[in-house]
Amino acid sequence: MTIPTRNNEGFLEDAWAWSPDVAREIAADDNIELTDNHWEIIEFLRKFYKQHEISPPSNRLFVKAVREAFDEEKGNSIYLMQLFPGTPAKTACRIAGLPRPTNCL
After folding, report:
1. What is its main location (predicted)?
2. pTM for the model
3. Could you read off the pLDDT of 54-88 as tens digits, one per residue?
4. Do residues 29 and 10 touch, judged by C-beta distance below 8 A?
5. Which of 4, 9, 23, 62 is least surrounded, with the fewest CB atoms within 10 Å of its CB?
6. Superfamily (CATH) of domain 15-95
7. Torsion of CA 11, 16, 20, 22, to 10 degrees
8. Which member of 3, 64, 104, 105 is catalytic?
9. Taking the domains of the chain in order of start, what are their residue ranges?
10. For the segment 29-59, what is each residue's pLDDT rounded down to a tens digit?
């Protein structure tokens, strides 16, 4: 499988070139094996992007959006860091094929 063009941070140049197979390949680069819990957040992010045409702009807003969409259990930074190590918003958006969140380091 050929991964669509990515920038120097691993984000897709074209968010619409994404597919579940592309997500698996990008996740594998980070040694992440995608589970149902990952897919739930990835699908949420894809819907968020389609609706707002931006990625959640920061980790704090990412956590808040997940909390509002799901619940306290999933909408907290520890849960999201376990799924998407490093900076959860940045890692999750990269795997979901979305642009880099604007305020993430």
Report:
1. cytoplasm
2. 0.91
3. 888 788 899 999 999 999 999 999 999 999 999 99
4. yes
5. 9
6. DsrC protein, C-terminal domain (1.10.10.370)
7. -40
8. 104
9. 15-95
10. 999 999 999 999 999 999 999 998 888 878 8
Instruction: Note whether 83 and 89 are within 8 A (CB).
Output: no
Return the axis-axis angle of helices 20-29 and 88-95, rounded to nearest 10°: 140
Q: Is 104 a catalytic residue?
A: yes
What is the Cα–Cα distance from 14 to 81, expressed in whole angstroms? 25
Q: 32-65 as b/e, with b when 16 or more CB fall inside 10 Å?
A: bebeeebeebbebbbebbeeeeebbebbeebbeb
Residue 51 CA to residue 47 CA, distance in Å, equals 6
Distant-in-sequence, close-in-space partners of 87: CB < 8 Å, separation ≥ 6: 59, 104, 105
- Name the residue type at position 101: P
Number of Cβ atoms within 10 Å of the Cβ of 75: 17
